[in-house]
Write a structure and sequence with these properties.
Length: 141
C-alpha cells in the first residue's frame, strides 16, 4: 500500500510516517525516499507525526476546505497507542487511512467509508521485499 501510494505521486495521497518506521521498512535506502515522492512527510518521531496530522486538520478547518487529499498514516504506536487512539478520535476527516504495526489494544480494526462501516476488501495485499519496494519506486511513472 505504501509503495503503491508513493509510486502514484502527489496526485493520489499524502503519506505521513516517522523516520524510525521508514528506516525499519527501507533500511539504508530510506534516505533516498524524499526524492521519490513530494507527498511523503517524514517526521522525526511519532509525536511529530501526530502534531503534523493535528496541524493539518486545524489548517484545513481554518481555510474552510471541504476537499483535500487523503492521508495515509503509517506508524508503530507501541506504548503510545493511547495517544494515537486519541488522535484518531479527534480527526474530523474521513480522509485518514491508517496502517499500524504492532499490537493495537483498542479492539478490531474496521474499514469505514463515508457510507459507514464496510466489510474489509477481500483481496490479499501484495507484500514486497525491501529490494522490490525500492526497485518499484525507482521505476519511472
Amino acid at each position: 500500500m505504501l509503495v503503491d501510494t508513493l509510486a502514484r505521486g502527489a496526485e493520489g495521497c499524502d503519506v505521513v510516517i516517522a523516520r524510525p518506521d521508514v528506516e525499519r521498512l527501507f533500511g539504508a535506502a530510506s534516505s533516498q525516499l524524499p526524492s521519490y515522492a513530494a507527498a511523503l512527510h517524514i517526521t522525526d518521531t511519532l509525536e511529530d507525526a501526530i502534531e503534523h496530522l493535528e496541524d493539518r486538520a486545524l489548517r484545513t478547518a481554518a481555510a474552510g476546505l471541504v476537499e483535500q487529499l487523503p492521508v495515509l498514516w503509517l506508524a508503530a504506536p507501541g506504548d503510545d497507542a493511547d495517544v494515537v487512539h486519541q488522535t484518531l478520535e479527534g480527526q474530523a476527516s474521513t480522509e485518514l487511512i491508517t496502517l499500524f504495526n504492532g499490537p493495537w489494544p483498542y479492539g478490531p480494526t474496521h474499514f469505514v467509508s463515508t457510507d459507514g462501516p464496510q466489510h474489509p476488501p477481500c483481496h490479499n495485499l501484495e507484500l514486497l521485499t525491501r529490494d522490490q519496494a525500492i526497485a518499484r519506486l525507482r521505476t519511472p511513472k
